[in-house]
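Ticket #4471: complex job returned nothing on first submit. Input attached below:
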Amino acid sequence: MTDLESFRAEVRGFLEESAPESIRGWVNQDGYWGGKNPELPHPDAKRWCDIMAERGWTCPTWPKEYGGGGLDKVQAKVLDQELGRLKLPPPLTGFGLSMIGPTLLQFGTEEQKQEHIPKIIRGEIRWCQGYSEPNAGSDLASLQAQAVIDGDEITLNGQKIWTSYGDKSDWMFVLTRTDNNVKKQQGITFLLIDMEQPGVEVRPIKLISGASPFCETFFDNAKASTGNIINGLNGGWTVAKALLGHERNMIGNVFGGGGPRGERRGPPRNPLAELGREYLGEQDGRIADQVLRDRISQVSVDHQAFLLTMQRNNDNLKAGHRPGPESSIFKIYGTELNQRREELMLSIRGPQSVGWEGPGFEEAETTQTKAWLRSRGNTIEGGTSEVQLNIIAKRVLELPE
Amino acid sequence: MALVLDEEQTMLAQTAGAFMRESSPISRFRALRDSSEERGYSLDVYKQMAELGWTAIPFSEADGGMGMGLAGLVIVTEAMGRGLAPEPLIPSIAMAGQALSLAGSADQKSTWLAPAIEGEKVLALAYAERGQRYDLRDIALGATDKDGGYELSGEKTLVLGGQCADAFVVAARTAGKGGDADGITLLLVPADAAGVSTERQQRADCQNSAILKLEGVKLGADAVIGKAGEGHGVLCDVVDRATVALCGEMLGGMNEAFDRTLDYLKERKQFDTVIGTFQALKHRAARMYIELELARSVVMAAARAIDDGADNAKVLVSIAKAKLSDAYALITNEAVQMHGGIGMTDEHDIGFFMKRARGCEMTFGDAAYHRDRFASLSGY
Ligand SMILES: Cc1cc2nc3c(=O)[nH]c(=O)nc-3n(C[C@H](O)[C@H](O)[C@H](O)COP(=O)(O)OP(=O)(O)OC[C@H]3O[C@@H](n4cnc5c(N)ncnc54)[C@H](O)[C@@H]3O)c2cc1C
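Support reply: We reran it on our side without changes. The output follows.
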């Protein structure tokens, strides 16, 4: 047996023995986010996370010294395949895993990594992102939340907005203004702050989809310690940009990808076509409505092209070539694809898609209508499409300002 | 099926790019267009391509080829697409040559395929008929049984590279009627056989195709490629391969048109500044760039899928042709628009690419045709 084969056998054995039977085949768009007071979208969600975290397999490729899995890419793929074989969901998700974790591994001091990474891996702390302010959105660097340093202590005043899951998070990574007298990018400090304190107030905001996943966050003499400054005083912009790269990849992957793991596995299926058959009927084995059938193909073909481009990007990195197309491509295309998909599903459901709740509509229909509304935010959050196009024009095409 | 170039392919891409830049600037294409010479391409350049091994790339070593597959062939068609090179690599190698390689007898291979691989002979595939559009079952040209062989009469159109081919692979109907998959037979017809004539066509994209006229052409039973009446399957496989090769050409053309446009955006001044500072143009340029990246991925994937005999190869071919057709049209429309008035002149080269985009789109199925095929293959 090669090393890889014995690794596969070990993984398989472990999963078969330890993964809760109840969680196999569980498909959930949102996943398990952990935290001090975790929400349990499935009764065994936390148990499943703990089992995997024990081995560091919530973050399979992160270094062992901080509690990660220490796997190489090939091994991580094997783990992923074995999870898929048993139809096991990802044990943990969240901004710790996708955003602040990778950023800390890159920019954190040894002490900072020791302090925060293990808790991310074990899903003990739920993180949120404090970037945007009422007057600093696309022009993020103009942010004004003031941090004042006195000895080891930092005092924070100001406001953040659009803080996703701010009301459910334990800690926030936040961009603060620490110098007003230099170029705006040079006076920003990247700070980690505990949200459980009197100086931090969070107010949920209702979205057009009816849900309230994001918040306003107010700092009124909130406290943090200088030990939680990442990359030094006024060194925050570099960190902020690196993290945005991780965020874009994540958003592009989530929305352009194949949806939750359960759906990506097994024989390829096309949810749009299935919905088409259900709502539009069939004629000679084809979806009866020719126009919508073609729109289904347009979105599906583009989706395949997108997945192949992600694959090419990964293959290039694996072959040691320079990073291929900028992450901005995936952010723009993945989010727009998701919007097109959602809109097409409305068209396919036709009049049944006008429902909000109550009689006459099935839950799948109203849920999807709300998902469509939510999808409109995809091209805004994480840097708008227009901002991404600016980045491509400048960095990739080198068009003059 | 890694979507990266290996070492051999990287080298091929470098030599192909260098050779085409050197020997095939757009000025050469323009001169060929303006000349009255019947051939429409340079025999000399084609011979050099053969010397570089390009005509051998997709064939197995058993057939005397290099065994580099379509993944290799698209590298050179991409380089040719950048220079709009009219040499008949796709007609002779990716079309007729593929038919012989897939279904030809040992005799047919040694008489016709071997010299085609050497670049000594040029072959063409004659399947299209007026009114056929893209469905390969719509073959009406009849071959009747005669003296243990066949007699062929009728006309084929849009025979790529047909204006001076040495032999034709002709898709003819030996049974059934137009629209039937069964009853189509591929026949090898030497250009010098009695009753064969060609007439060169003048196309908007100035590439080479011809009408092939067959008047009582008599063929022996040994002219059949593969099995009589069972040519449709071979024809589909051949056209799928040719489609991928053409997608390579399209990829090259759209990259060239884009690069030229990007240069123009950085150089043309209006309102006291280069026009590339205008966000309305920047954003459109960025969107074109995204389409270019997607296009490259689907071409690489389709080529590798066919080479590997993957189950989803046909699906990937349709994805590729649907994407490339739309992307080449988009990018060249935008290229002309962003050049302003000069882009509308015959004197400027950018318009060549827009014409070629449409020529390619209407060859082997347009985007709508391939989306329909994608849907059917996907079971809806
Ligand atoms: C669902 C959702 C979740 C979010 N979650 C978070 C979060 O967790 N944490 C966080 O910090 N933020 C979050 N955001 C905020 C998000 O990052 C901002 O909304 C985004 O950066 C845009 O800023 P803005 O809303 O101020 O819009 P503006 O910047 O005011 O933009 C308005 C319009 O102008 C356009 N525009 C602006 N500048 C340019 C330019 N230079 N060129 C061309 N067009 C331009 C924009 O593209 C947009 O169309 C979230 C947003 C959404 C919708």
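Chain A touches chain B through 44 residues (CB under 8 Å). Closing as resolved unless it happens again.
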